[in-house]
Amino acid sequence: MRSTFKVLFYLERNKDKKQFAVPVMGRITVNGSIAQFSAKLSVPESLWEVSGGRAKGKSVEADRINRHLDNIRTQINKYYQAICDRESFVTAEKVKNAYLGFGDKYRLLLEAFEKFTSDLQKRVGIDRSCGIWKRYCRSINHLRSFMRKEYRVSDMPLAELEQSFIEQYHVYLKSDLGLQPTTVCGHLRCLKYVVKIAFNNGWMPRNPFALYQYTAPNPDRIFLTEEELLRMMTTPLRYKRQDYNCDMFLFSCFTGICYADMASLTYDQLEQDANGDWWISGNRQKTETKYVVKLLPYPLFLLDKYRGLAGKCYLFRMSSLDSIDDSLKHIARACGIDKQLSFHLARHTYATTICLSNGVSLETLSKMLGHKNITTTQIYAKVTYPMIAREVDMLKEKLADKFSGV
Predict the structure, then answer these.
(1) For residue 73, how far is the Cα from the chain centroid?
(2) What is the DSSP secondary-structure string of 99-112?
(3) What CATH code is assigned to 226-392?
(4) DSSP, residue by residue, 279-332
(5) DSSP annotation of 352
(6) Is the dihedral of CA 303, 304, 305, 309 positive or negative?
(7) Which among 15, 60, 65, 200 would be 20 to 30 A from 149, CA to CA?
(8) Which fold is adopted by the domain 107-200?
(9) Among 3, 12, 7, which residue's Cα sits nearest to residue 29?
(10) 3-state secondary structure at position 27
């Protein structure tokens, strides 16, 4: 429903003081709310028409006064319309503040979100990855669609946010868009972080989302078994592009290096030790944490296979992540693998099938993966049946002499 809006002018008379020229005041009324302001103008009382709220007559002075008042009215109408277009409700105080230039008090959510995302883009390749920036870009689009659907506005003042906003946004992401719990959790984190920054910058009086908590359930992390890895290594593929993307995926399976770090791998990161073994080391783009990987025979074979293809500097010329993930779906079908493959799955495969299943300790694996905390490594660490069998066999040998008589 459209709000009622009116602007009128009146004289601020002082009963205890005789005045030749009386100050003109303005009054804004919106849905019963009232805000008053000075028109920065004084008018002889004899020249004022109370019923019309303007100067009477056609004198030069009356014309000057009325043009000044009409200009104020036009500006206020403009600010009122702008607020109506972007916000869920309008008050007289908001319109007055906008006219007087106090609009900074009403910082907008999407405005703050876009500024943060723009600043984040400048840090890509320095201390932030392109994937993080893209996630915030997607979050802006989801947030904009949600506000249009639920609130019928294009933006909303930060000061008007309540916890119910993020609760409704949660429902929208989960029900209307059908996003997975982990994806929903990521978008909620983006929103909470931007609002926290806005609060810290003093753009809003409180953080309405500070107490809101949502933790997505940890899904089962899938990985390739040894048999599935062998199948990918030996199955002939129809297209050269699929063969190349498959090799990039397998390189990650045998090194644990993620897509962003693989795309930026240079020959300077290759080192050979005194025993003739080759190593790759570097800092992860995501966390700036150092990782160190000793190369197994198969990744060494792939390095020789594609040496020089990406020029003298980089080891590989990687396709886009979306392109590789799409290619992996066709590769999985060709190899008879009934799993939803993505490039990141290679990291899980390295952690579980290559390392932990073959006796590599969790601490060593954490260093090779470049994790800041070992608790992050535990997410990748899946206990497989061969691992259980091996550990129980070792236990059986140790206990054989102790309980042989039982």
Answers:
(1) 41
(2) HHT-GGGG-BHHHH
(3) 1.10.443.10
(4) EEEEE-TTT--EEEEEPPHHHHHHHHHTTTTTTTTBS--PPPHHHHHHHHHHHH
(5) I
(6) positive
(7) 200
(8) DNA polymerase; domain 1 (1.10.150)
(9) 7
(10) strand
